[in-house]
Specification:
Layout (H helix, E strand, L loop, with lengths): L20 E5 L3 E6 L8 E4 H12 L7
Antiparallel strand pairs: 1-2, 2-3
Length: about 60
């Protein structure tokens, strides 16, 4: 996936403008990049794996406490 004009990148509404990751949903995959380096590498995840990660984060699976 290349970062072209057809990709709609989203950031958290709780983040500051340039201090966050950006996420884009392209159907079967989800892309993630660093908002401070938009021309840098893009990580690609299968949609199912991304949804598993988000569910785990919401459930506290990755909490350090």
């Amino acid at each position: 996936m290349e970062a072209g004009p057809h990709i709609h990148w989203k950031t958290s509404s709780r983040s500051q403008n340039t201090n966050c990751v950006e996420v884009a949903d392209s159907g079967s995959t989800v892309a993630m990049r660093d908002s401070k380096d938009r021309g840098g590498p893009i990580l690609i995840f299968a949609k199912e794996r991304w949804l598993d990660f988000v569910a785990g984060a919401k459930d506290g699976e990755f909490d350090l406490n």
